[in-house]
Amino acid sequence: MELEARSSRELTNRVTSRGSKGAAHDSYRDEMALSMYTKLNGWLGVPYRLRGTDERGFDCSGFVWRVFHDAGVEFDRTTARELWETLPEASERERTAFGTLVFFEGGSHVGIVRDAHSFYHASSSKGVVRSYFSDNSDYWRQRVIGYRRALPPAQMEPLQRRTADVESRRW
To answer: Residue 69 catalytic?
Structure first.
């Protein structure tokens, strides 16, 4: 518990300290990261709801969409698999950065990286939770298929064009 409290304080300090070059600042403005962090913590315990995108309940991709939408990063509300197919791959360094998206086996589940050890997601059995990559069973770590990065607003236009290109090739 002490380690979790210290880790939480460190993340808050990284997110709220202006001018810092911490991992949380690689792609997100300070206020955007703080908004995301505040929302994430405020939604812990909200139940799972298929296709949910609000306080009544979230599914995994609805949760991701809502966090980024509320922080000013716009992309279409879509499935985890479509996010995997359209968002750019995260660099090795970004994989442990707050705000990076983590995808799991089959591309049907997505979460938001908190740090190198944990992530937030909407669990079908527990609702919005913080889970750890390495717990007693390494359940989540064994299922990670990769990481993607949602870009800040100024960089979203090229991504939206790429998304439209992918959609046009499907039909």
So the answer is: no
Given a contact cutoff of 8 angstroms between Cβ atoms, the answer to whether 40 and 30 are in contact is no
Could you tell me the two tokens for 84?
């995997």
Give the predicted TM-score (pTM) of the model. 0.73
Q: Where are the alpha helices (DSSP H) in the chain?
A: 2-16, 30-42, 60-70, 80-86, 156-170
Residue 25 annotated in active site: no
Q: Which of 25, 60, 69, 117 is catalytic?
A: 60
Residue pair 67/74 in contact (Cβ under 8 Å)? The answer is: no
**What are the CA-CA distances from residue 10 to residues 16, 45, 53, 155 (Å)?**
10, 22, 29, 28
Q: Which residues contact 140 (CB under 8 A, 6 or more apart)?
A: 104, 119, 131, 132, 133, 134
Query: 64 pLDDT band (50/70/90 cuts)?
Result: very high
**Active-site residue 109, yes or no?**
yes
Retrieve residue 101's tokens: 């998206």
Q: At which residue do the structure tokens 């810092």 appear? A: 20
Candidate list 25, 69, 109, 117, residue with the active-site label: 109
Q: Which position has the token pair 């380690």?
A: 3
